[in-house]
Amino acid sequence: MKKQQYSLMQVIQKISVFKGLDLEHIQRLLRAGTSKSYGIGERIYTIDEPSHEMLVLLKGKLVVTSAGGEELAAIWPGMITGEMGVFTNHPRSANITAVEASVAMGIGQKALVSVWASVPTVHICMLDNVVEILSERILFANSEKEVLKNRITKLEGEEEDDYKDIESDDDGEEASELDESSVEKAIKDGEDD
Questions:
Q1: Which of 74, 109, 106 shows the shortest CA–CA distance to 91?
Q2: Could you state, in order of their start, the residue ranges of all structural domains in the chain?
Q3: Which of 14, 65, 83, 99 has the smallest set of CB atoms within 10 Å of its CB?
Q4: Is the pTM of this model over 0.70?
Q5: With contact defined as beta carbons under 8 Å apart, do 36 and 70 qualify?
């Protein structure tokens, strides 16, 4: 085994979806994968297209964007993308684009299923890892939701305070309904300017 291949296997072994796999299993996955290169600005995955492969980024940088073009995340070397669709058969949920010249290892769904069939422990280990990844994502999303909820509550409270300031006059007393003469006076003063 070449030193470069061994180093790559060690990197892949540290990626969350492959955590706990032996180097022998990682080597099988590498043999099932194909090397892919992407130029700057090249679209790799598009929302709603079928999810038939996942990528392990080895070099470069990718960005994840929403349908509206909002940047959601960055993918750096040693990170993976597309794995959830491969496991769930759901279409792509985001766009993935290379923002630097990038090199990745693509592992197709059929090749992955073939490895799983020949080594069931790899399948079990990877599914356990996916459950852990999804659990972490749900916890993070719930945490973010709580932060946003608190911000909204705070802003609503500030908005109510602003309305109270508008409703009270300079002395801090509640403003009474406007009478016709004060309205007419304000209009006349505005016309004189």
A1: 109
A2: 3-142
A3: 14
A4: no
A5: no
